[in-house]
Design goal:
The chain has ten helices and four strands; from the N terminus they run E-H-H-E-H-H-H-E-H-H-H-E-H-H. With 193 residues, it is of the alpha+beta class. It has one domain (2-185): 2-Layer Sandwich (Alpha-Beta Plaits), CATH 3.30.70. The chain is globular, with a radius of gyration of 17 Å. The two termini are 23 Å apart. It binds adenosine-5'-diphosphate. Residues 58-59, 62-63, 86, 90, 120, 139, 142-143, 148-149, 151, 154, 157 line the site of adenosine-5'-diphosphate (ADP).
């Protein structure tokens, strides 16, 4: 069974969406196996958003394509300049107020959660997704104000990333193993026989 790391960022906490966000995962039949409120340290956030070539290229490519598709010029020369700036803003943002960290488990949990979370830019995220329903922020607005886009939530992008991120925010003893009724109803072939 896959596990994914989810963070409700300071905007999600401040806007009172902790309960609603958790409910989306529960309603989808996913199981919470760890949950806590944390005031993130510099070290936590540094580990979480590692400034790798791949990460910088990812944020740069997505934002450049979206900005240019909106008919605006993208003001950064390359992925390193842009990635560095995004990372600096993210570190300050995530440290600015308590966040909620959780580990969510289920069949294909990583991709299922990304589907429920929606696209990075809330204005482009589909309705029905967490970001699409609760935020309308744009790359244009966040770039103009030189701040991270306010998209309420982080969710691991791959199974590998999830393993690494869970280790940053939780110790082994904080990860609970228990049977949830959904384990039987959704996955047990003998449930009703
Ligand atoms: P996601 O959170 O959807 O996986 P990324 O891993 O690409 O997105 O980026 C991490 C976070 O960095 C985003 O959720 C967002 O808060 C911030 N971010 C990424 N790209 C930008 C951008 N171009 N402008 C402002 N903030 C950004």
């Amino acid at each position: 069974m896959e596990q994914s790391l989810v963070l409700i960022k300071p905007d999600g906490v401040q806007r009172g969406f902790i309960g609603k966000i958790i409910a989306r995962f529960e309603e989808a039949g996913l199981k919470l196996v760890a949950l806590k409120m944390v005031h993130a340290s510099q070290e936590d956030v540094d580990k979480h958003y590692a400034l790798t070539e791949e990460w910088m290229m990812g944020v740069y490519t997505k934002a450049k394509a979206k900005t240019e598709a909106n008919g605006e010029a993208f003001p950064y020369p390359d992925h390193k300049a842009y990635g560095g700036e995004i990372k600096r803003g993210l570190v300050e943002f995530l440290k600015s107020s308590p966040i909620v960290a959780m580990v969510v488990e289920g069949e294909m949990a990583v991709s299922a959660i990304r589907k429920l979370v929606g696209a990075t830019e809330p204005a482009s995220a589909a309705p029905g997704t967490i970001r699409g329903d609760f935020s309308h922020d744009t790359y244009g607005q966040s770039n103009a104000q030189k701040r991270p886009i306010r998209n309420l939530i982080h969710a691991s992008g791959t199974v590998e990333e999830a393993k690494n991120e869970i280790g940053i925010w939780f110790t082994d003893t904080e990860l609970h193993k228990y049977e949830h009724v959904n384990d039987r109803v959704q996955y047990d072939p003998k449930w009703f026989v």
